[in-house]
Amino acid sequence: MNYIVLDIEWNASKWNPHHLEEIIEISALKVSSATLDVIDVFSSRVKPVERLTSFTKKLTGITQQDVSSAPRFPQVLQKFKTFLGTEESCFVAWGKEDFRFLKKECERYSLSSLDLSSYIDILPILQFGLYDTFKGNTPSLTKTMEIFQIEADGQAHNSFDDSMNTLKVFRYLHGKLDVHATYKSNKTPEERFLHEGTLKASGKKQLMKCIIAYMKKHDVDDVSFDTFFNSLIWLERAAALDLNEPVTAVFKAEFDLQKQAASEKYAAQKALLLAKG
Questions:
Q1: Whether residue 199 is found in the same domain as residue 165
Q2: Are the C-beta atoms of 170 and 38 separated by less than 8 Å?
Q3: 91 membership: H or E segment, kind and range
């Protein structure tokens, strides 16, 4: 078996709900499961349908010229499958977003998706596996390397450099614990999100983030209580946070306040986007 340490960059927009999010760069390292040495590397830019957003260019350093001469996603996927070969693979990534984007792009082009059933998400290992170092919070790659005093190479949000740095963290974790185990918080939802019966800042942040995600997806600056709490966006978030009924009730009690703040934030950002043309 080989590990495939994967990193993807995509053409993103912070606030435009109609923007097409497309993969613009894929990098992967084929790593021996026995030695954790790199066996082979893959890296390719991908030509998107839409032009790169200013947000993407600033974040990744990738220019429109960089992707204009790149192959389209179907061609890159075929080369990537050739790189993977026929050996059994276990994918390794920083969170599940990369897997989601791969699946979504395959669906958009009506292509057979990769078998991503065997994977390791580094985030829950960091959040809950290693002595609860991050207290259940979601750490960035840069911050993690700083804390563990691992020397970082290259540029953040460059998919090849990020895959190399992800491998460094993976090697560090591999020497500390079972990376194939399932890691969850050892704290109850009450301990994680409540203080004396009210929602902590961490819970408010989760709720605000979820409401804005709903507004962006549906291009609205308002949403009713029942519609939001029955939406797939909320139900998936609640399941991911492992919320129980008492804690969910406190989240619901906070809804009106967080919705008002989310509405103002979304409307302001959308107005700024329209002003820029």
A1: no
A2: no
A3: strand 89-93
Measured in whole angstroms, how far is the alpha carbon of residue 19 from the centre of its chain?
Answer: 18
Contacts of 135 (CB under 8 A, 6+ apart): none
Residue 209 forms part of a structural domain: yes
CA dihedral for 235, 111, 45, 163, sign (positive or negative): positive
For residues 131 and 85, membership in a common domain is answered with: yes
pLDDT score for 109: 95
Taking the C-alpha atoms of residue 256 and residue 224, their distance in angstroms, rounded to an integer, is 9
- Residue ranges, the chain, pLDDT below 70: 131-132, 136, 276-277
Is residue 71 included in any domain, yes or no?
yes
Which DSSP category does 222 fall into? -
Quote the pTM value: 0.82
- Co-location of 17 and 153 in the same domain: yes
Burial class of residue 93 in the structure, from the number of CB atoms within 10 Å of its CB (0-12 exposed, 13-18 middle, 19+ buried): buried
* Residues whose CB is less than 8 angstroms from the CB of residue 93 and which lie 6 or more positions away in sequence, other chains included: 5, 6, 7, 99, 119, 120, 121, 122, 166
Contacts of 266 (CB under 8 A, 6+ apart): 15, 212, 215, 216, 221
Residues 148 and 222 in one domain: no
Contact 174, 125 (CB under 8 A): no
> What does the pLDDT read at residue 49?
95
Domain limit, last residue, from 120, 139, 174: 174
- Segments forming the whole domain that contains residue 127: 2-174
Q: How many domains does the chain have?
A: 2
Q: Report if residue 21 sits inside a domain.
A: yes
